[in-house]
């Protein structure tokens, strides 16, 4: 007699394999029970598969007969005649990615261009999604920058975003928890979405030249428990700051629920320096950093931060503010000027929960000095140092650091990642032997080195 695990146990085990598509796929072949459980997990997010064209073909196979008849009657000849699929795959989907759907259907872009009636296939797939998915969790219609011009005109020409009006759309979208989108989509779409979706936890908006502020503002305002906001402007020029100010104002409504704020190419607005974000734990800023505004923000909101990333900024005043106002940081990404030794010391001494520091090419502090300060002043929980494009030109510097780390009490094994600036003469073979020695002593948990 073959013993089998209860279905609930199998479900929990397979859940742990959600990111391991290959292993889950192999589970399909064991028996019908394993197959059913694996399929349910694999089809939650079908857009991660490399063979996206095959996924699209399966979706076409899943189309209801009325959709296939409509397509054939309109001259679409690529509809396969096949037996119904083993499972109702579409009903298992929890993620909808419009870019993957378009790109996956046509390498396919040229087919849509040459024969616009092929657009009907995309439309019918979207109808199927809206009708058969009981509760979509994530939706993405943010295209890569290279294709922006094409898709902007595509949206305008075909207006396929009317999927929000398809039968079943309200039920399908009402529990949406994650949304990634571009700002050039017309305001009406966002206004309609704001009437349906009130439970978005994570919102990512990429601002383009055409900004539909009214709809986006309404969408932000109507959320009940918004926890994460990302605003990006890829050219880093800050030219949209005035246009998105109302979006920032709408974000302040969520000052008690917001946990993560990410700004790329857009400065932190001054209105945020007057508001307490009581649950903010993660702040990431990339380009267009206004140091004075950020310091004012940290004065009132730094206490609760656990993760802070400030990319492309090399300022002692900011680092001093981090030391003084961010005592509970666990992870920090910031650069240090060559005269920033005291500020780094203060960060190590004042931020006693600190576990990780990452610093990159903006830092002028030498790799040798950084290692010395980390060994001497970092708190007991510290265990990860990531140095990018730093100058580290002697094996002795590393050996001295490892030796000092070995004497720490308590000893916490270290993860050290070093990407040099191409100037240091360190020999990889010598480094490897040194690392193996200290791994054996329990000093090093992980080590990566590159001088390129």
What does this structure look like?
- It comes from Rhizophagus irregularis.
- By secondary structure, the protein is an alpha/beta fold.
- Helix content is 42%, strand content 14%.
- The chain has 4 domains: 1-42; 44-176, no CATH class; 183-305, no CATH class; 330-452.
- The chain has a 13-stranded parallel sheet.
- Helix 1 runs parallel beside helix 3 and helix 13 runs parallel beside helix 14 (241-251).
- The radius of gyration is 26 Å and the shape is globular.
- The N and C termini lie far apart (59 Å).
- The model is unreliable at 108-112 and 146-150 (pLDDT under 50).
Percent of sequence in beta strands: 5-15%
Q: How many domains, in number, for the residues?
A: 4
Cα end-to-end separation: 59 Å
Dominant shape: globular
**pLDDT < 50 stretches:** 108-112, 146-150
Rg, please? 26 Å
Let me know the largest β-sheet: 13 strands, parallel
**Helix content range of the residues, please?**
40-55%
Mean pLDDT: 84
The neighbouring-strand order within the major sheet is 1-2-3-4-5-6-7-8-9-10-11-12-13
Per DSSP, the total helix count is 20
Briefly note the structural class of the backbone.
Answer: alpha/beta
Count all strands and give the number. 13
